[in-house]
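Render this sequence as a predicted structure.
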Amino acid sequence: MQLQVARIGKPHGIRGEVTVQVLTDAPEDRFVPGTEFMVEPAAAGPLTVSSARWNKDILLLGFEEVADRNQAETLRGAKLFIETEELDGDDDEGWYEHELVGLEARVGEQVVGKVTALNTMPVQDLLTVTTPDGKEILIPFVEQIVPEVNVGEGFILLTPPDGLFEVNSDEAAASEPEGTD
């Protein structure tokens, strides 16, 4: 199975470097010279890293197959993938988006939606759960709120604080807060 680790952004400079949106927790391990990535669309790859450097908070990559800015421009929006067999098997703490998307979200035995995305954020990750009526709810992906992830049986268990599923709904905005007279 392939795992997306980055999305290519705009060209940087005239030597064929590109900005990338990093989608991995370990960019210093993934983006080293000599690393080959599968690319979507496939016609744009494979690509082999020739250089990787940080410019402020933006990762800039150069590829052996890309000589100038014009070639770099053709890569805009392309996705970079690695084979998951290359991943270390000792990371029992984390989950990849492809493992979570599609799992049922349950509160107790009640199905409250499906996981549709994992948003990696600087402080904590957020799960996007889409409810049966199409609402998207952002769930902090922390052990207190998501105590169980069971990929084998196809679900995550949630213990949401009161109001988490109502906070973005129209009904919550229209109703009065409890305890007001």
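Summary. The chain has a mean pLDDT of 81. The longest strand covers residues 2-12.
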